[in-house]
Amino acid sequence: MKTENINRSFCKEERLCSTKSIDRLFASGVSFVAYPLRVVFYLENEPDEGKRFAKILVSVSKKKFKRAVKRNRVKRLIKEAYRLNKSKYSEVLRQNERRMDIAFLYLKGELPDYAEIEKAIQKAAFVLNEKLKDKEDDGK
């Protein structure tokens, strides 16, 4: 059985680093909650030059986790769940030739397990796809 060649890496081009983009994301982005994550996204009309359709930012509050070890653990879990499920995010974007900036903000005050984070990432992908389809229908 031949498997598809799916790029499941999470490289630098997929990380949201630009201060200008981050400011725009939080100033005019749309948000919703897929507990324990708050998801903020900003949809652009043109694709990225590097053919990356989504750029993400992961944030965990220092107020909820004083120790950097715990904050980094939660960030690693979120990034890994996104990496394994990113095809769900990019399929609609790829069809419409759009690009999106996404921020995942962790809300809960205790350490999660991977299953909880993956469920939240999948729910966020479903909600984002529904919102994109609604915007696509409004545009037609």
From TrEMBL:
KW RNA-binding (keyword) present: yes
GO MF term (any one): ribonuclease P activity
GO biological process, one term: tRNA 5'-leader removal
Keyword tRNA processing among UniProt keywords: yes
Family the entry assigns: Belongs to the RnpA family.
Annotated HAMAP family: RNase_P
Protein name: Ribonuclease P protein component
